[in-house]
Write a structure and sequence with these properties.
By secondary structure, the chain is an alpha/beta fold. The chain has two domains: 427 residues, no CATH class; 113 residues, no CATH class. It is built from 23 helices and 15 strands. A five-stranded parallel sheet has the order 6-3-2-12-13, sandwiched between helices. Strands 10-9-8-7-11 form a five-stranded antiparallel sheet. Strands 1-15-14 form a three-stranded mixed sheet. The chain is globular. It starts with a strand and ends with a strand.
Amino acid sequence: MTLAVRTAPFLAGGPLYESYITSFAAGQPDAPLRGLFDHPPTVAGASARAEKLATGYRGDRQALAASLVGYNRRIGAPAPALAAAGRLAEPGALAVVAGQQAGLLTGPAYAIYKAAGAIALARRLAVELERPVVPVFWAATEDHDLAEADHAWVLNSAETWQRLRFQPSSPAEGLSVGAVSLAGRSREAVLSDLGASLPAGRVAAGVLEMAAATGREAGTLGEWFCRLLAAIFGPQGLVILDPMEPALRRLAAPGVVAALTNQAALASALAQGLASVGQLGFAPQLDPGTSDAHVFFYPEGPGGPRRALIRTAAGFGLRDAVGDQWAPSQLCELAAADPERFSGSVVTRPLFQDHMLPTVAYMAGPGEIAYYAALGGCYRTVGLTMPVIWPRPSYTVVEPAVAHMLRKQGLVEPDLPAALEAAEEAAVRAHDELSVERTFDELDVRIDEAYGPVLAAAGRVDEVLGKLAEQNRRRVRRETRWLRRKAWQVARQRAATARAQLGRVRTHLWPNDGPQERTACGLYFLARLGLGFAADLTEVAPEPPLGHHYLYVG
């Protein structure tokens, strides 16, 4: 299999992301965002970050490596992943980190693009910086928004997008994805629906067996995600990090304590960061409440509901709850003794990550880049500096049959969805033998010209007669509009074949009226193209400045 990469305009990245790519990542000295990030996403930026980590990283390398080796061995990761995890114990070793909410069957395709991008960047930086650089995937199993994680979209044999959904057998409201049990029949129902939707053949059968095997070994929805990623990318050396793993949670404890101890400074730094983003003309992506502590707590332990902490007069409490209150010293002592009961928010998760890991670069999507723009001061508040924020690869996969249809319609590098809409209209016009618009526009003009003298004369004779004449003119125009619509219907019917092909292109490349990578499940493409597609992705990951890229499969 070969992959040809073509670049197209940005898709749904947002103004801040586009500025980040076109000016800051491109090295322009006057880039508006330069003051909000510590390093540009370049090799030089990574080198500068590595120098800071040489003296600034305070984590326990031996404990980190041992914990990651142990966890990855437990989830069935192959030898290359275990060896990569072990390299984090070496002096000067660095990590390229990607992260994503743990979703059903790998979740949206951009999750596997992040993983592949992290592997590619780690390989490149290992050569450029002449030191071990390990790709790490932070599986956000702590997230408790099950509605975002419980489904996967696949294109079935009828060429419609089918939503596969996992339904827990017991109540899961408020539970982290890493605590949602796979017990019950829903896992087998998902696998059955997946098998029915996939194309026949050994490739799809092998991927389905991998999904089934990892699902049988996993106890929770979050663990299933982690095992799948380890099976897919472990051969390329990707290390999976589950932040709910007790040994790893303990390594994040200093970050939790730092966040709880520095609440006032953290809130002030975040407010200043958001204001700086706004002053540059960008809409901030975060809207924190005035009392948010930006830390979550598990009152019943990590197997129970995840609740947001807020600042109170007494110190801390739970959002939307009356009763439990903790003094700052109490909660800090609890965090140090029992860190498994705490987890980070969108603000503090990066801080906990970089307390734990020697992160040289973080592989971020458009939304993540937008909120990282406000976090520089938060990093400094807890004694850290921000890693390089490296834009993740953004892809649309174009399979051979779809590529053939694109070429036939003259859409080699489509700017979706505008190009598809234009092509559909052009297909209809190409079969418009009546020249409907021109013909009926001319007819309307002639009708008005013919009625002009009649209307004038009738009005002079009698006011009522003039009104009747105008009503008659309008009735004739309504009839011509009806005939115009009928003429267009005939033209569209004659263009049905071309429009059907364009409809198939839209279905494949712009599913559910949105970017393919945000709907299609990553596992779906592996079932279509083979597990080798995952390895190929690590070879084609482009460098900043990035846009959106079409992967033509050959």
